[in-house]
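Checklist before submission:
- one chain only
- standard amino acids only
- sequence pasted in full

Submission:
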Amino acid sequence: MNEGTETENADEFSAFREWVLEGEWSNVIEAYRNGRECHKIRINKSRGTALHVAVNDGKVGLVMKLVEEILNHEGREVARDDSALRSTDERGDTPLHLAASRGFIDMCKCIIGKNGERRDLIRVRNKKGDSPLLRAVLAYHKKTFVYLRNVSKDIYDDVLLSNYEGDTILHHAIWREFLGKQVFNSMLHMFKALYL
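Returned file contents:
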């Protein structure tokens, strides 16, 4: 890449960041549509990508459009290791982590896919070792937890159950008095499948 191209890209990326921060979403969607290089641009040190910002701001329709454009470039089946859907913010949270921690089930469904085709994203850990499933518990979002658990019911491993400190979903659920009958039964089934 020559120097002139690098300068042009820097200016283009700077404009893209401004669009996101100023809420000029039609420009952001167009940039997502025109090429995948914008899909992973960090907006600033803490906010992650444009998709992170849209999730955090609770913009369901916008998240659906951005995910659609990502999938148009990357394919729909499985989120590759280099997928924009695996991009992280400063805490290591993916867009799915944020959606789960905010209780945005429709966004979780959009990111994971109608038929769970990208459910492997539920296994991604942030810097603390939290999965999106654990983030839903930490933020008291029972319905989101149950949805994520149902989508990942055939995935049994420690990634879903505990973080790097060894705290499990069950620990956090008990500490937060999170356990309803449906949640308890789901957690019990997870632990039985893994440890018995």
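Reviewer check: The chain has eleven helices and no strands.
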